[in-house]
Design brief:
CATH superfamily of the largest domain: Response regulator
CATH class of the largest domain: Alpha Beta
CATH architecture of the largest domain: 3-Layer(aba) Sandwich
Order of helices and strands: HEHEHEHEHEHEHEHEHEEHHHEEEE
Strand order of the largest sheet: 7-6-8-9-10-13-14
Number of domains: 2
Strand content: 15-25%
Structural class: alpha/beta
Number of strands: 14
Helix content: 40-55%
């Protein structure tokens, strides 16, 4: 019996050893296995792909697509660490948020329910982020905008990032430039007109404070921006600007055609002062009034990497590549790509891991010609402090850069 039990014990030991060995092997396999999302990860895009501001959204999406093709092909991209192991990326979902906060909330829900999406480029507009951002925050998804500039977005939204300066910075640079260019003095009359949306109201309010601090008399007005259901009308304000002898009309809006209409109605009313729009009007196909000024949150097209402008021109045409509005969205996608790749260093990732990694991503340079990192204390550590440019529209409708700071 002892011998029999011994045989049984030996056999049992062999089985146990085999089981332990098999378990250890399985553990090793699991430890070294790479998550599918670290082989190919999805990113989303959200912006106005239809409606009056569709030019801006489509331009941004095209620049994001150029990044994805460059990244996935292994092309050298300014600022990407040479030794970084790139995770392949796919354009998993394009959301048409239409500059509408309600629509943006729906788009955000679609992004959140798509498990392949680790982060999103967008939203384009500040009001879109206020509408859709809370939905993405609840889903733990980071979203990086190439154009949303309202100051408080970085304090109100947990996972919102931007690669462009905020409204306070743009207004400061724009108003500082235009005061000097026009020789505005204390007591001079100016008109500040917002578009009724969070973006326009925010930057107009900052501009008003700066002008009043310099001694200007400010007439503050508001006209709702054009939408698919209605067109703005500035004719009464144009007449008022003439009657009050305004030397400057400062009018931020997200719809470039509104700036074109406003300047034309000012001219028809006999206005001879200056006009300054902001980044939402940077569209030479829709806003081309000679002599008007535009402040913008990024560099001019001549400052952007020539090789990538050439690639964009080849794919989308010379006219599409003449305006720099969409280029920051290339960098927004790049920040996400680097964050995803870093989060996959050990073979696994998640939305939370990507959001955490984004906070430490720092590019020594970019296609925009300057460094990018989310470490600007003036913008709650989530946006750059530099990059504002001022353009003046020439007689032939082209945009001439007159200041960069």
């Amino acid at each position: 019996m002892l011998r029999k039990f011994g045989v049984i014990a030996i056999a049992a030991g062999a089985v146990l050893a085999a089981t332990i060995g098999s378990s250890a092997s399985a553990t090793t396999v699991r430890a070294t296995a790479v998550s599918p999302l670290c082989k190919q990860a999805g990113i989303g895009f959200a912006g106005p792909l239809s409606g009056p501001a569709s030019f801006l959204g489509n331009d941004q999406h095209h620049w994001e697509a150029l990044f994805l093709s460059s990244w996935n092909s292994g092309k050298a991209i300014p600022g990407v660490p040479a030794g970084l192991k790139r995770v392949k990326l796919k354009d998993a979902l394009q959301g048409d948020s239409q500059l509408n906060p309600q629509v943006s909330a729906t788009v955000a829900g679609q992004m959140a329910s798509n498990k392949s999406i680790l982060a999103m480029v967008g939203f384009a507009g500040s009001n879109e982020n206020l509408g859709g951002g809370p939905v993405l925050d609840r889903a733990g998804m980071a979203y990086v905008s190439g154009s949303a500039t309202v100051d408080e977005l970085t304090s109100k939204l947990k996972n919102f990032f931007r690669v462009v300066p905020n409204n306070a910075k743009q207004a400061s640079v724009g108003i500082g430039y235009i005061r000097n260019a026009l020789g505005l003095k204390s007591g001079d009359q100016v008109m500040v007109v917002d578009d009724g949306e969070s973006y326009g109201v925010g930057i107009a309010t900052t501009a008003q404070k700066l002008l009043e601090a310099a001694g200007a008399k400010v007439d503050r007005e508001s006209v709702p921006e054009s939408t698919s259901s209605g067109t703005a009308d500035f004719s009464s304000l144009a007449q008022k600007a003439v009657a009050t002898h305004a030397k400057l009309v400062y009018a931020p809006t997200q719809v470039a055609s509104d700036s074109q209409l406003f300047t034309q109605q000012l001219k028809n009313a006999g206005y001879t002062g200056a006009f300054m729009a902001t980044d939402g009007s940077l569209d030479s196909t829709s806003f081309k009034f000679p002599g008007a000024y535009i402040s913008f949150f990024g560099p001019g097209i001549t400052a952007i990497s020539k090789s990538f402008v050439a690639a964009y021109t080849k794919k989308y045409g010379a006219k599409a590549a003449s305006d720099p509005f969409g280029a920051p969205s290339f960098v927004a996608a790049q920040m996400i790509g680097v964050a995803i790749s870093k989060s996959c260093a050990h073979g696994t990732t998640s939305r939370a891991a990507v959001a955490k990694a984004l906070r430490s991503v720092s590019l020594p340079t970019s296609i925009l010609g300057h460094s990018i990192s989310f470490n600007n204390a003036g913008d709650v550590r989530k946006g750059p402090a530099r990059g504002v440019t001022v353009f003046k529209i020439q007689p032939d409708g082209t945009y001439k850069q007159v200041f960069a700071g």
